[in-house]
Amino acid sequence: MQTRARLPSIPYLVCGTSLIGLGMTFIIPAITILRHDLAISADKAQLVLSIFLLTAALGQVIAGPVSDHYGRKPTILFGSALYFIGALISLFAQNIDILLFGRFLQGFGAACCIAMSRIMVNDCLPKTQATRTLSSVTAMMVIVQVLSLALGGLIVDNFGWRLNLFVLTMLGFIMILLSLVVGHETNLHRTPSLNIKTITKASRQLFKLPIFNLNFTVTSIQVGMFFAMNGFMIYHFQHLGASITEFGIYFSLVSVGYIIGNILNRHFSQHHSIEFLAMIGTLGTFFAVILMAVLPAIVPHPAMLSVALTVFGITNGMAVNNSMIIGISVAGRSSGMAIGLMGAGQVLTGSIVGSLVIALGGEHNPYIGLIVIGLLTLISIICAVIAYMMHQKQMQSNLDIS
Fold first, then answer.
1. Could you count the other beta carbons within 10 Å of the beta carbon of residue 125?
2. Where do runs of H (alpha helix) occur along 299-365?
3. Residue 120 · residue 67 · CB < 8 Å
4. DSSP string of 198-238?
5. Model-level pTM?
6. What is the pLDDT of residue 126?
């Protein structure tokens, strides 16, 4: 039996997984004010989110294999420091170029933290237990983001967007202290070497595995849709008459739904396979996207859109963690590489889709964004159904052999 390390404290894991989300939720309500203060276009303002997400994607690809070789603790400590430095630079930026540079560093640091927090769970726990624990961590992480999104809107309305960046700077500093004081190493089976050749070989081997490919696609789309909505949904709420503060409160309900979804996932995983739950989650998110289009058309009020977003959060919460654990479970010693690639796919998808929606005119016509994420959801459904059928076939083969 493979020796496993002791699981780090849940609050520490929650802090690590929260940094990407907080880096978004404290900035989203500030976008329209930031545009005015720095005299930039909507496309330029979108880069404040997109650059952060792109480097958060790149960072996870690098952080995963680095931690497979050097360990989880040095990697998360480095990421915490980089997050702090990036947020500090952004705080004092006087033009968009310096702000984007700070967000670049901040995104890279956040990538290291979220990748390590997730992979530590996989290091320490078997597959089914890891799913339940990751659901708990994610639920608590989302509670933090619910509060931060509402708080971010209030801060911007009353004190300006730079105070939001000051909060992010302090969060980076707190993460450094936690990594030094309570963080410990969980990677007891490190890879013997680290170079471009071994990284390329490990990634190629992962993408040869059908189960990894299918769940990589599901998680990339499901998380990517949420990140993309962070960028364009504010315009949908404004069209329905919501203020920035109201947007923060209404949009935070998607996180409330996500909490409920993770609680349901923790319960149902004791009775159903996680492959089945991932498939149900993807079907539910497609239904939620339909509600986003239909409910506000029937009753044009922000509350109706928030109802649909709550449903999206519930079903998205059921899809994401299950697919991630399934994908990581087939990676063996390259689990860090697997979580890095999956995290990168999630964030990269969100960045590309968010920018695409704005480029297509999503700030003026919210249905453009809904059409894009609706089509993506259909792809994730196909992948989840195939993965479930493969699981059923494998289970039947095992029964036949026994």
1. 18
2. 302-329, 335-359
3. no
4. HHHHHHHHHHT-HHHHHHHHHHHHHHHHHHHHHHHHHHHHH
5. 0.70
6. 78
Q: Tens of pLDDT along 70-105? A: 888 999 999 999 999 999 998 888 888 898 999 999
Token pair of 324, please?
């991630």
Question: Which structure tokens are listed for 323?
Answer: 């697919």
Nearest to residue 350, comparing CAs of 107, 54, 113, 67? 54
- Tell how far CA 201 is from the center of its chain: 26
Kind plus residue range of the DSSP H or E element containing 176: helix 161-181
3-state class (DSSP) for residue 72: helix
Residue 91, C-beta contacts closer than 8 angstroms, at least 6 positions apart: 102, 162, 165, 166, 168, 169
pLDDT for 335-380, tens place per residue?
777 877 887 788 778 778 877 887 888 778 878 888 988 999 999 9
Which residues contact residue 307 at a Cβ distance below 8 angstroms, ignoring those fewer than 6 apart?
253, 291, 295
User: What burial letters (b/e) apply to 317-326, b meaning 16+ CB within 10 Å?
Assistant: bbbbbbbbbb
Of 40, 61, 172, 189, give the one whose Cα is nearest residue 124: 189
Mean pLDDT of 131-160: 74
**Collapsed DSSP state (helix, strand, coil) of residue 195:** coil
How far, in Å, are 27, 104, 159, 369 from residue 99 at the CA level? Answer: 12, 9, 19, 26
The CA distance from 77 to 179, in Å, is 6
Question: What is the Cα–Cα distance from 123 to 6, expressed in whole angstroms?
Answer: 9
Distance from C-alpha of 234 to C-alpha of 244, rounded to nearest angstrom: 8
CA distance 230 to 21: 10
Q: How many residues does the chain have?
A: 402
Question: Residue 312's closest CA among 239, 242, 228?
Answer: 228
DSSP 370: H
